[in-house]
Amino acid sequence: xxxxxxxxxxxxxxxxxxxxxxxxxxxxxxxxxxxxxxxxxxxxxxxxxxxxxxxxxxxxxxxxxxxxxxxxxxxxxxxxxxxxxxxxxxxxxxxxxxxxxxxxxxxxxxxxxxxxxxxxxxxxxxxxxxxxxxxxxxxxxxxxxxxxxxxxxxxxxxxxxxxxxxxxxxxxxxxxxxxxxxxxxxxxxxxxxxxxxxxxxxxxxxxxxxxxxxxxxxxxxxxxxxxxxxxxxxxxxxxxxxxxxxxxxxxxxxxxxxxxxxxxxxxxxxxxxxxxxxxxxxxxxxxxxxxxxxxxxxxxxxxxxxxxxxxxxxxxxxxxxxxxxxxxxxxxxxxxxxxxxxxxxxxxxxxxxxxxxxxxxxxxxxxxxxxx
Length: 372
Ligand code: UDP
Known about the structure:
Elements: E1 2-7, H1 10-23, E2 30-35, H2 46-51, E3 59-60, H3 71-85, E4 90-94, H4 98-109, E5 114-117, H5 129-140, E6 143-146, H6 149-157, E7 165-167, H7 171-178, H8 180-185, H9 188-192, E8 200-203, H10 207-210, H11 213-226, E9 232-235, H12 238-247, H13 249-254, E10 258-261, H14 266-274, E11 278-281, H15 284-293, E12 297-299, H16 308-311, E13 315-317, H17 320-330, H18 353-366
Parallel strand pairs: 1-2, 1-4, 2-3, 4-5, 5-6, 6-7, 8-9, 8-11, 9-10, 11-12, 12-13
Helix pairs in contact: 1-7, 1-18, 3-4, 4-5, 11-17
The chain binds uridine-5'-diphosphate.
Uridine-5'-diphosphate (UDP) is lined by residues 10-11, 14, 172, 203, 235, 263-264, 266, 269-270, 283-286, 289.
């Protein structure tokens, strides 16, 4: 049976890699890695998937979006073309990016059973594109694989049939666990002149923070303020870099002790995250990874679709104006990451999610549970 694993943007590769590895040699299910070409820069795409041990994609969607219109339509057309000549028995999409929505929509329209891994997350902010993508994908999916019980609750409240919902845990943690040796070996502190547990790591790419000039400038000033206490290490997302170049923000940051880096490879970034005094982010995956690692995380957003990282993890939401002040209060705390992270913290965030997913796929695809 053919299963398409859809990935096209940086956070997708961390989510499909454990599945791809787990399905190798499966007696019935043959997975193909379909790259939607949403992210095309090497550092956001090929460098990451190669590091995670994925092969080159079996299929790369070819599409252009010259008018700058919604790329979902272009990706849908390209994926429909692929499914027409190479129809899979099921399609698995992960997370909430545009290319997941595009592939999910085509699977649904072509009556190909659809699996959503990381289903049920909600931040209840309808202005976020990711939120509308999540809701749309969940309501098309035939099998919804959730990371935590709050996600199950969200889906049930929206009227999704309980028989379609399976809690499997957090697939990103599988990658963190699988890559532990590579993370340990990454020589990043020396390279960037940082000392363990004595720096602040930053990632930012959400439109609310980086697309509008004033919030972005305020964030940069806050980071400079924090850099008086801790060196700030900031691998800059390409989207953020473009905005910063246009708005004079790079100059603001250069006035402080802020190390601006290109997006980093997975193991190097994870090592920096593991050993940071503090992480400031608006990334979904980083909120989860810091919770697992027991590293303090300040999330620069009004809401999170991952509330379990607040109730059971190390995450707090913070507004731009408070981020500097909050970060600096941490400077006086004693914080032992071993008291906060690791396997027992959140149920099923244990590195074995892929095997639970594959057990569900066995029932769904091979055991004849597919029903629409
Ligand atoms: N990440 C990385 N290099 C970086 C920054 C992040 O490998 O320079 C990893 C991070 O550890 C996590 C994933 O990228 O696994 C998160 O991706 P992103 O923030 O782009 O997406 P989101 O999680 O917000 O959807």
